[in-house]
Description:
The complex is a heterodimer. By secondary structure, chain A is α+β, with helices and mostly antiparallel strands. Helix content of chain A is 38%, strand content 17%. Chain A has 4 domains: 6-110, Alpha-Beta Complex (Sulfite Reductase Hemoprotein, domain 2), CATH 3.90.480.20; 134-290, Sulfite Reductase Hemoprotein, domain 1; 306-398, Alpha-Beta Complex (Sulfite Reductase Hemoprotein, domain 2), CATH 3.90.480.20; 413-548, Sulfite Reductase Hemoprotein, domain 1 (2-Layer Sandwich), CATH 3.30.413.10. Chain A has helices at residues 6-27, 33-41, 65-78, 101-110, 142-153, 226-240, 251-258, 260-274, 283-292, 306-314, 316-325, 353-366, 389-398, 429-438, 442-448, 507-524, 532-539, 542-548; strands spanning 45-47, 52-56, 62-64, 82-85, 91-93, 127-128, 168-171, 185-191, 197-203, 215-222, 326-328, 334-339, 350-352, 370-373, 379-385, 413-414, 453-456, 470-477, 480-487, 499-500, 505-506. In chain A, the strands form 4 sheets. In chain A, strands 16, 17, 18, 19, 20 and 21 form a 6-stranded mixed β-sheet that branches. Chain B starts with a strand and ends in a 14-residue tail after the last helix. Chain B contains 9 helices and 8 strands. Chain B folds into 2 domains: 3-142, Aldolase class I (TIM Barrel, Alpha-Beta Barrel); 162-213, no CATH class. Chain B has an 8-stranded mixed β-sheet with strand order 2-1-8-7-6-5-4-3. At the A-B interface, helix 1, helix 2, helix 5, helix 6 and helix 9 of A face helix 3, helix 4 and helix 7 of B.
Amino acid sequence: MYRYDEFDRTFVTQRVEQFREQVARRVSGELSEDEFKPLRLTNGLYLQLHAYMLRVAIPYGTLSSRQLRRLAFIARRYDRGYGHFTTRQNIQFNWPTLGEVPDILEELAEVEMHAIQTSGNCIRNTTADATAGVAADEIADSRIYCELIRQWSTLHPEFSFLPRKFKVAVTGSGRDRAVTAAHDIGLRLKRDADGRVGFEVLVGGGQGRTPILAVTIREFLPERHLLSYLEAVLRVYNQLGRRDNIYKARIKILVRETGTAEFARLVEEEWAHIRDGELALPEQEIARIRAYFAPPPYEALADACPELDAQRAGNRAFDAWVRSNVEAHKRPGYAVATVSLKPHGGIPGDASADQMEAVADLADAFGFSEIRVTYKQNLLLPDLRQRDLFAVWRGLKEAGLATANSHRLSDIIACPGLDYCNLANARSIPIAQMISTRFADLEREQEIGNVTVNISGCINACAHHHVANIGILGVDKKGKEFYQVTLGGAADETAAIGDIVGPAFDEDAIVGAVETVVDVYLAERRDAAEPFIDTYRRIGIKPFKEKLYAAR
Amino acid sequence: MPLVRNGAAVQDPWTAVTTADQLDRSGPLLVTLDLWRAHRDRLAGRAGPLGLRLSSDQSPALVADDLDRFDLIALEFPKFTDGRAYSYARLLRERYGFTGEVRAVGHVLRDQIAFMLRCGFDALDLDDRAAAGWDAATTAFSAWYQPATDGQAPIPTRRRHAVPAARRRRRAAVAAGPAGNGAPTRPGRVGGLRRHLGLLIGRLRTTRPEPARHSERT
């Protein structure tokens, strides 16, 4: 993992002191709320429906056990004993008071964490594939580049007042687990014919009321030029992005209005001036950062693990968990396990302080003290010996974290919705709870296979409903909550925006509608090996539409 | 509204004009882009200093070829959240090599001062409250991560030149002389020279901090 040196430590400490002083100026009335708002937002502090919400950055989703314990401590001391993990690999605390926030930031700084740029019209926390560094199919380790981007983008003097927020995601594998196509900039690591590392650069992806998938503006950017190229993209956007209409201010609108080819030309023209300047990354700087992400001291193990096989054969629940929640590791004898924060009937992404501590303990005992936060609002233990999986599962089970539903229907992404958020039109969490309760039977979930269900409480699409296989969007119709369904979205390397199936369903009908969609899929699929999205792409929306609206 | 340069309020000798009938005024004259375009020949031949005020949708690229005629470029912030002029200021300094004054005008607040100075602004039109916060605003951070226009070495460069703590301790021990010889240690010429040399050596060497061992990671 990356470790702060004296420069990072000094910087984050100074940032805390700066914010403490800004809060004091707000409290004294020297700063108006309008003037204070961008300052608090770039420190992750939102004003929600009932209280402030503090969003803490978990850079590219990597956490140490010590950091996770500190988050648990903060949850207990400053919140109501829990935290909420988000699709952008951050954690949110829902009940801090303004006066306490500088203290929380100080607690975070002590464990090399911060809340810098988790909100506001600036470059946000860069996200990555949660399995970076351990995935069997990895081309290069995205964490190295995410850390370089984190440092470069932190309080960037030129890009702290952008037209709108700006999100960057990096994937290190051909299997895109970082949803790069839905980001303002998506970076896909690849190697050229000579094996040199570089990036395919995509720009202009985003969701919200105008969902657009990112387009490629450069097929191969050598790693040395990463930061200068990002600076060029941002400089073009900062000057030309629309500032007259908040809904048209994202880079996706600029790219669409300018045209991909012309936008790429503008970027290349700007980049030509700065590519060999101070931002060019010397090989030793990349190597210096890479050294922080050196593999832990793995044991030499055989890939076959008879102990695991015996444990699976002897325990059906454990076997189901391994099937859904355990993935291949690049080292023989090791495995990657998803810690589900999606108990049936629970709140997606929530973890109690006790649960965070339980995961930290398991990471210390079995996983080199490391934890990841995933796009799907779960946690992940990236470095487990296969022979320890049973012990890990038992530990998770005790903490209520062993639901065997990773990638399954009840592994729902949901935004906080009307229960917390002042932008929302409808509740998301209760709908997620009803759906996951309806599909709580593990045998049935396994039968249905992998499918993504995302629920957003408003068109801002924080839960990424546009790119879900089954997307649910809460809308307000004359003061009543309704839910619009989209089908066929995808968040992986085959990214797609879902199609609206028809008129929205009310709260009582939405769970039944999801069930109908699943029934059509089960009836139409070629066999159990054809996942939902493949069936949808083969048969289209019509059969779903017919069944959903047959009674009307 | 004091005009602040290097932390001190200074007299503003410039007269801002918006209509053609004001162009005959003597002394430093600050004109709009429209006036410059309409009266270019007359203004270019003018004896006194000339400044140009650009609104936030007017890039200095529009006058790139004329920049050597101006002694001042004033960049407007209609709202402090409109950040276009940060890019304009950097372009003026880094792309076009503009060496005159680059002034921030409009909605300029204390919490933007540090960003502005880093982007190449050297004069800020501040209200009294913001001007009073100058020192706090410019000393809040001792170093920044990214290269900009302020000429300061960014953190990655400082790291490469930093002397690791272990070597610093060794050097301090050497400078203090052999342990236990009873001689009082005082900062002297030799020690100072040694420190100076050490700094130089530190600058030349690329040092790399030890990555954390996994057993110690936090």
